[in-house]
UniProtKB/TrEMBL annotation:
Occurrences of domain N-acetyltransferase (ranges): 13-173
InterPro entries hit by this protein: Acyl_CoA_acyltransferase, GNAT_dom, N-acetyltransferase
An example Gene Ontology CC term for this record: cytoplasm
Keyword Acyltransferase: no
Protein keywords: Transferase
Descriptive protein name: Ribosomal-protein-alanine N-acetyltransferase
Species this protein is from: Noviherbaspirillum humi
Gene Ontology molecular function: any one: protein-N-terminal-alanine acetyltransferase activity
Length: 189
């Protein structure tokens, strides 16, 4: 693996490494109580927690266990969210995908645009065979996004996660490399 973090580009976004300079933007996103109910952790309440989050995201690359990209909007340079591939098991050639977006930026196609590029990176550069997505059963926007990207429902991980004082089921979805390649060929035709 290269020692340089991969910067990726889309028509409207620059996907770059998360840094400490992103702490304020991360705090704004991760302190939104209503929006973070889907994220699987307690909302942050102090800026230092956002700094720890930036450090954790950066640490995945250093440890070789994944990547987390800051989604920087080209139009104004604003960090509007993050997405990444983590829990990378190189032997089994799989990983998990995760993402979050500022509430005012949703339903504008930003995350799909970013994830298509990140998924390509996972299959092409990380050489994974399978990417897994885990969503709360009530997070309909995330479920629809995963399905539009070609992820297939596999089942429920019962009470897999704990936040906000109780256990939560998570739906499990997966995307195999051959399914992604086929969907890309179909789209190009």
């Amino acid at each position: 693996m290269s020692l340089l973090f991969p910067t990726l580009s889309t028509a409207r976004l620059r996907l770059r490494r998360v840094t400490m300079q992103d702490a304020d933007a991360l705090f704004a996103i991760h302190s939104d109580v209503e929006w973070m109910k889907w994220y699987g952790v307690e909302p942050v309440t102090q800026r230092v927690q956002a700094e720890q989050l930036a450090d954790m995201f950066s640490g995945w690359f250093v440890a070789g266990t994944g990547f987390r990209w800051a989604l920087e909007r080209r139009l104004d340079g604003r960090l509007i969210g993050t997405c990444g591939l983590f829990r990378w098991n190189k032997s089994w050639r799989n990983c998990v995908i995760g993402y979050e977006l500022a509430r005012d930026c949703r339903r504008q196609g930003y995350m799909r645009e970013a994830l298509e590029t990140v998924i390509d990176y996972g299959f092409d550069r990380m050489q994974v065979h399978r990417i897994q997505a885990e969503t709360h059963p009530d997070n309909h926007d995330s479920i629809q996004l995963a399905q539009r990207l070609g992820f297939r429902y596999e089942g429920v991980h019962r009470e897999q996660a704990y936040w906000s004082g109780h256990y939560h089921d998570l739906n499990c979805y997966s995307l195999l490399e051959q399914d992604w390649r086929q969907s890309q060929r179909s789209r190009d035709d």
